[in-house]
Amino acid sequence: MLQMLQEQRGLEQTPGRTDREYQQLTAQFPQAIAYDTLFTIHQELCFGQQQASLELFEDCQGAIAQLEHGPRATMDQRKLAGS
User: Is 11 helix (H, G, I), strand (E, B) or coil?
Assistant: First the structure.
Protein backbone atom coordinates (compact mmCIF):
# COMPACT_ATOMS: atom_id res chain seq x y z
CA MET A 1 0.00 0.00 0.00
CA LEU A 2 2.83 2.42 0.76
CA GLN A 3 4.27 1.71 -2.68
CA MET A 4 0.84 2.43 -4.19
CA LEU A 5 0.67 5.70 -2.27
CA GLN A 6 3.99 6.73 -3.72
CA GLU A 7 3.26 5.66 -7.30
CA GLN A 8 -0.38 6.72 -7.57
CA ARG A 9 -0.59 9.65 -5.19
CA GLY A 10 2.94 11.05 -5.12
CA LEU A 11 3.13 10.53 -1.35
CA GLU A 12 6.77 9.77 -0.56
CA GLN A 13 7.54 6.99 1.89
CA THR A 14 9.29 8.28 4.99
CA PRO A 15 10.89 5.70 7.32
CA GLY A 16 9.92 7.54 10.51
CA ARG A 17 6.32 8.21 9.50
CA THR A 18 3.75 6.42 11.68
CA ASP A 19 0.47 4.81 10.68
CA ARG A 20 -1.40 7.71 12.26
CA GLU A 21 0.60 10.23 10.24
CA TYR A 22 -0.20 8.32 7.05
CA GLN A 23 -3.88 8.23 8.11
CA GLN A 24 -3.87 12.00 8.44
CA LEU A 25 -2.27 12.39 5.01
CA THR A 26 -4.74 10.03 3.33
CA ALA A 27 -7.84 11.39 5.09
CA GLN A 28 -8.66 13.70 2.15
CA PHE A 29 -8.37 10.95 -0.49
CA PRO A 30 -11.57 9.51 -2.01
CA GLN A 31 -10.75 6.03 -0.65
CA ALA A 32 -9.83 7.26 2.85
CA ILE A 33 -11.86 4.45 4.43
CA ALA A 34 -9.82 1.79 2.60
CA TYR A 35 -6.55 3.39 3.72
CA ASP A 36 -7.87 3.69 7.26
CA THR A 37 -8.85 0.00 7.26
CA LEU A 38 -5.34 -1.09 6.27
CA PHE A 39 -3.56 1.19 8.73
CA THR A 40 -5.87 0.16 11.57
CA ILE A 41 -5.39 -3.55 10.88
CA HIS A 42 -1.62 -3.04 10.72
CA GLN A 43 -1.64 -1.27 14.08
CA GLU A 44 -3.79 -3.95 15.71
CA LEU A 45 -1.66 -6.82 14.40
CA CYS A 46 1.72 -5.27 15.13
CA PHE A 47 1.08 -3.33 18.31
CA GLY A 48 -2.15 -4.69 19.77
CA GLN A 49 -3.56 -8.01 20.86
CA GLN A 50 -5.29 -8.79 17.56
CA GLN A 51 -4.62 -12.20 16.01
CA ALA A 52 -4.40 -12.65 12.24
CA SER A 53 -7.56 -14.24 10.88
CA LEU A 54 -9.24 -15.03 7.60
CA GLU A 55 -11.68 -12.19 8.25
CA LEU A 56 -8.86 -9.64 8.63
CA PHE A 57 -7.16 -10.99 5.52
CA GLU A 58 -10.38 -10.60 3.56
CA ASP A 59 -10.81 -7.06 4.94
CA CYS A 60 -7.30 -6.24 3.70
CA GLN A 61 -7.99 -7.76 0.29
CA GLY A 62 -11.18 -5.72 -0.03
CA ALA A 63 -9.42 -2.49 0.93
CA ILE A 64 -6.58 -3.11 -1.53
CA ALA A 65 -9.12 -3.85 -4.28
CA GLN A 66 -10.82 -0.51 -3.57
CA LEU A 67 -7.49 1.28 -3.80
CA GLU A 68 -6.47 -0.47 -7.02
CA HIS A 69 -9.74 0.28 -8.80
CA GLY A 70 -10.59 3.67 -7.32
CA PRO A 71 -10.04 7.12 -8.79
CA ARG A 72 -6.51 8.43 -9.21
CA ALA A 73 -5.21 11.50 -7.42
CA THR A 74 -5.37 14.90 -9.05
CA MET A 75 -2.26 17.07 -9.21
CA ASP A 76 -3.64 19.19 -6.33
CA GLN A 77 -4.00 16.07 -4.15
CA ARG A 78 -0.41 15.06 -4.99
CA LYS A 79 0.91 18.48 -4.01
CA LEU A 80 -1.02 18.35 -0.73
CA ALA A 81 0.25 14.83 0.03
CA GLY A 82 3.86 15.88 -0.55
CA SER A 83 3.71 18.73 1.95
Answer: coil
- For residue 82, give every residue at least 6 positions away whose Cβ sits within 8 Å of its Cβ, in sequence order, or none: 10, 11, 12
Taking CA 37 as the corner, what is the angle to CA 39 and CA 73, rounded to the nearest 5 degrees? 85
- In tens, the pLDDT along 9-44 reads 888 888 899 999 999 999 999 999 999 999 999 999
**What pLDDT, on the 0 to 100 scale, is given for residue 78?**
43
Q: What is the DSSP string of 13-81?
A: --TT--HHHHHHHHTTSTTHHHHHHHHHHHHHHHHSSPPP-HHHHHHHHHHHHHHHHSPPPPHHHHHHH
Residues 28, 35 contacting (CB under 8 angstroms): no
**Separation CA 69–CA 47 (nearest Å):** 29
